[in-house]
Amino acid sequence: MSKTLNKEDIINLLPHREPMLLINELKNIKKLHSATAIVKVKKDSFFVQGHFPDNPVMPGVLIVEAFGQAAAALTADGLDKKTYEDKLVFLMSVEKARFRNPVIPDCDLELNIEAVRSHGRVWKYKGEAFVESKKMADAQWSATIVDRK
Predict the structure, then answer these.
(1) What number of helices (H) and strands (E) belong to the chain?
(2) 3-147: CATH homologous superfamily?
(3) Pairwise CA distance, residues 9 & 26, whole Å
């Protein structure tokens, strides 16, 4: 049976806080391998007010940020707590990010992410974003685990 993390669980794993904590749930977790994150894109989301008032769209960079948060939560949840204590996960690179369709509120953006490989503290991931089975974006990215200090 796969594991699910709610928003409170995610807050306990990540340093992100409102309004920048974008993921609401992490489900279908396969330890250190893959998961599905849910981002509730709402008409009153902070980024919609200025992007764009008459035609609200979730910015592509925030889709990439949500991918990164989902990957960080997947990794933090899978590692031994002592290994992850007092650490942060930082985005290192984004490769092959493609935005295929605009993400318009009100919707649930589903991010299917996968850890491709890890080498020491550096991890490589890939992901696809969907709204109601329609692909909205995809990307590959790398992140590193660093000391919090």
Answers:
(1) 3, 7
(2) Hotdog Thioesterase (3.10.129.10)
(3) 9
How do residues 96-140 score in pLDDT, each as one tens digit?
999 999 999 999 999 999 999 999 899 999 999 999 999 999 999
In this structure, how many other beta carbons lie within 10 angstroms of the beta carbon of residue 27?
A: 14
Residue 17 has what pLDDT? 96
> Tens digits of per-residue pLDDT, 23-61?
999 999 999 999 999 999 999 999 988 898 899 999 999
At 108, the amino acid letter reads D
Amino acid occupying residue 63? I
Q: How far is CA 48 from CA 56, 62, 107, 112, in A?
A: 5, 11, 13, 23
Among candidate residues 16, 33, 51, 119, the one labeled active-site is 51
User: Can you give the pLDDT at residue 139?
Assistant: 98
51 is catalytic: yes
Question: 98, 99, 104: which is closest to 45 by C-alpha?
Answer: 104
Sign, Cα dihedral of 69, 127, 123, 8? positive
